[in-house]
Amino acid sequence: MAGRFTFSPDTLIRFRAGRMLIHTTTSKLPAFETDSAMLIGWLCQFATPALPEALLSSMAPEARPDAAHVLGYLQRSGVLIPVDPSHASAPDPTTEEAKLRSHLRLLARSFYEVACDLMAFGPFAEVEMVKRTGIGVERRLMALLAATDGIRSQLAELRTPFIAPQLAKLGLEASTRDIKLHIGCGKGLLDGWVNLDIYPAPLSTNVLWGLPFPDGTVQCVFVSHLLEHLFFPRDVRPFLAEVRRVLTPGGVVRVVVPDLETCIEAYVSRNAEFFASRRETWSWWPANPTRLEDFLAYAGAGAEPAYLFESHKFGYDFETLEKTLFDAGFTGVVRSEYMQSEHESLRVDDVSAVAKAKYGDKYYSLFVEAYAPN
Questions:
Q1: How far apart are CA 292 and CA 131, in angstroms?
Q2: Are 324 and 370 spatial neighbours (Cβ–Cβ below 8 Å)?
Q3: In CATH, 5-82 is 3.90.930.70
Q4: How distant, in Å, are the alpha carbons of 72, 140, 364 from that of 22?
Q5: 174-371: same fold as 5-82?
Q6: How far apart are CA 56 and CA 42, in angstroms?
Q7: 316 with 325: CB under 8 angstroms?
Q8: Burial (CB count <10 Å: 0-12, 13-18, 19+), residue 364
Q9: Rounded CA gap, 314 and 311, in Å?
Q10: pLDDT 10s digit of each residue in the chain, 374 long?
Q11: Which of 256, 219, 255, 252 is nearest to 342 (CA)?
Q12: 289-296 long-range contacts, Cβ below 8 Å, gap at least 24?
């Protein structure tokens, strides 16, 4: 057992009739059981990475064989996992990302289904769970919240060491000015711009962390088909406030979103071309949805929990987007058209496959520009 070991993240430790049971959510081996207070306290040292050999040497010689046997069993069952195995190969980023997305989708759907069950049961679930296990639903939910908060706190600590090397690689310093920022770039990268999105973008980040630039250092911002993927107003307002913060006085942001007014007009007028031509841009679009199914999905109604990261959360017409931008502190909000910005540097809509999608000679998108106060 060379190297350090610690408890697996899915380790479950329970107490029943004076005995401690340790197992994981995935192991096929039976739970390890003990009523030895000394052994229980000793095993707790693996709450942080520890060397088994060093911990064994701290025990009385006669207790070491039994303790070593326990460690071997916990290792085989996956309760104790190696922290820094020298033989481990570097993980494949593509495989790890696919696994992460799959786990997150399952988790989002599971949380939703648990919430539905609990709302259906009402107080009955709490009462019966206490009778059967001694622990009610409320304490289990608090444990889940604590675990989630723990992950979020640790992830928050990773932001600076994750972002700083990326900024350095892009040649961006605190003194850098007149930045052109493309937020939500996807695969459509703009030369001479800072292209920002989730991994694996050139500048990979979460826009809800805030933008990693000092006040007033960004000349212009291009945001195409990102806003509808954020919850309104909880996430949209602080995001737009961040965009305004980093813009220079008089700087401009160009926002492109689905045009819900056009979509509503197409629905009311039964414009078959509007709905059918979606598949020219989005090959995965369902073959035969009703007009209402099509419209509501586009407007962000009834998003599937497992796809909350990709689904639309809200829809905009010009009136709503204009008000939202004003509320975020922008001035001079104006409606634009495809590739027709007054600013040459912002005539970049063609980099976005979604922004340039159209039916006939009309576009699906709404193009708006707004200015930071002077």
A1: 47
A2: no
A3: yes
A4: 14, 17, 56
A5: no
A6: 9
A7: no
A8: buried
A9: 9
A10: 578 999 998 888 888 888 888 988 788 899 999 998 888 889 989 999 999 999 999 999 999 999 999 999 999 999 999 987 554 566 788 888 888 889 899 999 999 999 999 999 999 999 998 888 788 899 888 888 888 998 999 999 999 999 999 999 999 999 999 999 999 999 999 999 999 999 999 999 999 999 999 999 999 999 999 999 999 999 999 999 999 999 999 999 999 999 999 999 999 999 888 888 877 777 777 778 888 988 888 888 877 888 878 889 999 999 999 999 999 999 999 999 999 999 999 999 999 989 999 888 899 999 999 999 99
A11: 252
A12: 291/266, 291/267, 292/267, 295/263, 295/264, 295/266, 295/267
C-alpha 351/C-alpha 192 separation (Å) is 13
Report the topology of domain 174-371: Rossmann fold (3.40.50)
**Contact between residue 213 and residue 179 where contact means Cβ atoms under 8 Å apart:** yes
Yes or no: say if 97 and 199 are a contact pair by the CB < 8 Å rule: yes
User: How far apart are the C-alpha atoms of 68 and 73, rounded to whole Å?
Assistant: 9
Domain boundaries, the chain: 5-82, 93-165, 174-371
What are the tokens at 100?
């992460």
Own/partner contacts of 48-53, CB < 8 Å, gap of 24 or more, are: 48/6, 49/4, 49/5, 49/6, 49/83, 49/84, 50/4, 50/5, 50/6, 51/3, 51/4, 51/5, 52/1, 52/5, 53/1
Phi, psi for 114 (deg, rounded to 5): -60, -40
